[in-house]
């Protein structure tokens, strides 16, 4: 389109605008081949485009051959044959062969034959023919030995005959003859220089697709504009000016430079987009492998590309840090939400248990309700409650629940001085056993497979009334939330037992009052009062002293329990100013927490 006047092809008597049609078709097919190389297109569409482009290349080769451009004709013919091979199913069998190396080997061989048999008297023709034969041999070597470490150098040596061709064409001032060798030189130089695998647009990359389409549109529009402008300019001029370079050749070189710049920018943008997508996909291992596979010649381009990616990578690194921080916060919040849900469910069960124990006055029933709630809330394998019997210094099984309830013998008892239960009794605090196998005090039932335990003493007024034991088949099974719930259940059960004890003592007191009203003997009455008081208050020892009459001449004393030294001391204090006299002089009940620290009672310490 731009340089037909520089060849004899234009001398066929057709109007200049007619040449715009085949020129436009050739350039459009070139853009189509470029597009299907970079963009993912359907296989059938790509094959049709390659076949049509191959036919067009063969036609152009025939035209060039008819006008005496034999070397150029061979170039177009080989390019057309390669396009046919790519379009046929045979291309899959040629995947291991570099078709570009094959094309240059064939072109060098055929051009060398043409120059060798050409009837040209120039001395350089034979030398140039030898150069192309050597170039063909070097190209064939890279195909036969694809893993040869010097293939990079062999490909570069193929440039020499094409460079010589260009030098020979410069003195003739024939710009058209420079197109083919210049294109061959650029292809050989860029083959190993650019990482072509990073220029292909991935599926779904809208930005890369639009960049390619915009570049192709600009190139085609500029070509049509320059061709039309030159056609109009030449028709308006009657005399061709005598200048170093014609306007058409100047437009041609300007267009070539502009196309190179546009394609350079397109390749840079595509590689930048692909690099960003690889970085954002966090495929570090794949990237490392890809870097190892890159040839050494691509390192310059890769380092240049890294400069484009650096601002995005720094932004990405900050974004990654923020995302990781937010992910950690989300995990923390998720754990908090999970714990809160668990806590709410446990509090609901605790509220239900509290309501159930509100009016429950039977001690074993209250204990069974408590173990059922704990087994449901904490998913324990075994939950047991033991009641303390101080007289026998033992803990007796009161209630149990869980999957391993069959392991607990009926009426099971354990000494208050042995095992983990004894330790909880002595220390009067919760015992957490994360691994039963590492605890020497824990006493296992026969065939028991539990690995963790939680023991909570039931304490009221400083006295251990019982122990709750929770077991799980997993180690470290009980969290702080679980421990808090179990202790809350223990507190509710202790309050329920206390209410039950108050009720029972009140009933005993009412019954004792009805019995005392029928007793006539004062000594028997005092003894009954002492015994009933000790039983109702669950005391170890009680002492009753009665003085009646204006002169206090009616005196009656009685005691219940075994405390001989304390009894003797109290009886001796009747005649002095010790605790008995202090009690008679008091206007209201009083309590002595430690008689050893109270001067009026220090002599009564047992």
Main features:
8 strands; 18 helices; two-stranded antiparallel sheet; alpha+beta; Beta-Lactamase; 6-stranded antiparallel sheet; 9% strand
Query: What is the alpha-carbon Rg in Å?
Result: 53 Å
Uncertain residue ranges:
283-287
CATH class of the domain at 355-505: Alpha Beta
End-to-end Cα distance: 127 Å
β-sheet strand percentage: 5-15%
The count of β-strands is: 8
Sequence of strands across the biggest β-sheet: 3-2-1-6-5-4
CATH topology-level fold name of the domain at 355-505: Beta-Lactamase
- H and E string: HHHHHHHHHHHHHEEEHEEEHHEEHH
The coarse silhouette is rod-shaped
The main pleated sheet reads as: 6 strands, antiparallel
Number of helical segments with 4 or more residues: 18
Q: Provide mean pLDDT, rounded.
A: 77
CATH architecture field of the domain at 355-505: 2-Layer Sandwich
